[in-house]
Each structure stands twice: as C-alpha cells, then as structure tokens.
Amino acid sequence: IKGGWEPGQRALLAPPPPVKPGLHWRGRGADVMVRTLCAKLESRAGRLLRGVRARELMMNGSRCCGVAGTQGNEALRFEAGAVVLADGGFQADAELLRRYVTKEPDRLLQRNAGSGGGDGLRMALAAGARIRGTECFYGHVHSRDALANPLLWPYPTVDAPIAFGVALDARGERFADEGLGAVYMANAIARLPDPLEAVAVCDAAAWVGPVKRVARPSNPLVERAGGTVHKSYTMEGLAALAGLPEDALVKTLLEYNRAIDENRSAQLPVPRSASPVKPMAVRIPPFYALPVCAGITYTMGGVAIDERCRVRHADGHPIEGLYAAGSTTGGHEGGPAAGYTGGLGKAMSFGFHAGNCIVEASRAAGFRSAA
User: Fold this and answer.
1) Do 221 and 22 meet the contact criterion of CB atoms below 8 Å apart?
2) Model confidence over 279-318: pLDDT tens digits?
C-alpha cells in the first residue's frame, strides 16, 4: 500500500505495523509476505524444511553439488545442481561480529530476528570463497535502555535527536559526522572503545520541532516506553545528569554553535556535513540528553559474487554450482559512509536474478537438477 512517512518509503507491506513502541509483527506485512511466499513455493511442488541447519557445502572437486546439514540429531544430505546461500548475514553471531565489525559485540542491540548466524559465510569460506565489505551493518540508534526493555526496539529510534543535535562520547566530545545519517551513526557508535558510552544531545527547538515530526518520534515515545531522557535548562546541568565532563560538554556545544552560525561546520575538528541533514544549533533551553546504543539489523558485507550471483573464489573465478543472494553477499552496501540501499530490495533483486541464472545454467547443461 501507499502510506509511508518519507518520500523513499511510500510503499509499505500491508498491513503495516502500528505507530507505537515495541515489536509488532504477527499478522503484519512482513509476516504475511513470508507466509504468502512459503505457500506459493509449496503450491509449485517446492519443499520448505524447517528446523534444518546447513553445516557444510558438498564439493565435487571445484564444484558445489549440495549441502550437508542436521535436523535435531539426524544428519541430512541434499544433492543439487545448484545451491544458493541466502541466510541473511551474520549479525547474531558474536564471534563473527567481533572479527569483522566491533570489538564489543555484546554491547550492540540485536534489533533483528536472531537467526542470522553466519552459517552461509562460514560454509563459503570453507569452500574458498572471497569476502567483501564486512565492516559495516544496517541499523539504527536506540535508547540504551532498549538492551533491557523490549518496548524500545525496533522503534522508536533515537536517530532524530542526533540528526538535529549532536552525538557525544564519554569525554563530552563529538566523535562522528551526524549529518551522514542514522546508519552511519549506528556504525560509528559500534566502533567506539565502549559502544555504550554515546549520548545524543539536542535542544528544545529540535525536540519539539523536527524530532517530533518523524515517524515513530523519539519525543514522546522513548520516555513513554520507559527510556531515559535527561532534561536541563543549562548545559552544565545536562552534563551532570548525563554523567559527562561539564567543561568539555559546554566547550563542544559552544564550538559547534559558532561553526553553524558562521557556516563552517565542515571545518570543525570532526566535520559536520550539511547533507542529507542540515545541522541545527544546540542553544535553546531546555536541553535534552539521551543515553544511546547501536542497534544492528543485518550485516552489509559477506560473500563476493559475480554478475550472475555466482560465489567468487578467493582466486577470482566463480565456484560452479554455488550462488549467493541478499545479505549473505558483500560489496553492494557499506563503504566509508555505511551506504544503505535496502535489505528487502537486495534480497528480492539478487534472489530473483540468482534463480533466473540457475535456470539458464541448468538448461545449458542439459536440464540438470537444480535446487
């Protein structure tokens, strides 16, 4: 249906989730979509096996010819002319997150289904695959209380107070360019020495203005759901409430305000971009501070593929019979600004293309079985 808040999000899966805090997915758009796709698969003689974990790719020389896995205590083997890795990333695996994304994975909020354990990446690496762009993830900034309070994720986020204010570290200093957006800031927070030290700060003009005008707004939903919101009519008082060094916080905010007044925010010690979000000064009391954390939805990097969705070997050639799609793949998103192009869009585009390429390869090989 059409009904999104933002120009790039007008199309929504129906029925959409309610505009209120917490996780509400049963019977909603994504749940309905998955159930519809499953029914469509089975109506066309496809099989969906639940409770099976893929453990190892079956290789015949340099070609992938199936998957070995387990279902409870039972060992299973599936022979196939083609295998697609599409397990959605490695966001729920602490060891892989520590290796590729952050030194403190346990201090990230898992705003996901918890099913992205990185099995596809591990199996591909064991088969000699190349990986790309594993350092970034898609996510949002959340109230730190979301780590213990399920009403505070996946919404509301604390993206807007940072976008229209500043993000400070434990020293009371800015540490990243807030103008590059929510996904970039979530990654920047995850890379802090302590990902739980960040605080979002904004003033009254932002808090009752643009912060309140976004979808599922921080004001008033964070506080209403039990999240911490510090409020003070002085910068010094805000520092005391937030546990930040008073002198440093005041210096940071005054320096930031001067740079905006003089149109030189790009020349700050930590530059502040004017696009896509124009900076706002932090000067009108009362001031607000929200302790935050980085919430991870899915990892952006992973298995390298070619133009036909075939998994690339570390030597550069495609691994015959092995394909990958969606968030198992790497190289499409990420980069210095943690560029995000859409998880569902990537999954549907690459999945559809991989299926077509498998059909073409099967026909060319004389209609060998593909699965």
Assistant:
1) no
2) 999 999 999 999 999 999 999 999 999 999 999 999 999 9
**Rounded distance, CA 188 to CA 198, Å?**
10
State the Cα–Cα distance between residues 145 and 157, nearest whole angstrom: 12
pLDDT 10s digits, 238-261: 999 999 999 999 999 999 999 999
**Dist CA 77 CA 96 (whole Å):** 26
Gap between the Cα atoms of 279 and 60, Å rounded: 57
Distance CA(80)–CA(65), nearest Å, equals 5
Number of C-alpha atoms within 13 angstroms, CB side, residue 45?
Answer: 1
Residue type present at position 254: L
Could you tell me the pTM of the whole model? 0.93
139 has which bridge partners? 296
Contact 177, 273 (CB under 8 A): yes
Q: Of how many residues is the chain composed? A: 371
Task: Give whole-number Cα distances, 165 to 162, 201, 217, 275, 281, in Å.
Answer: 5, 6, 15, 14, 7
258 backbone dihedrals φ, ψ, rounded to 5°: -60, -40
Distance of CA 289 to the CA centre of its chain: 24
Inter-residue contact 227 to 152 (CB < 8 Å): yes
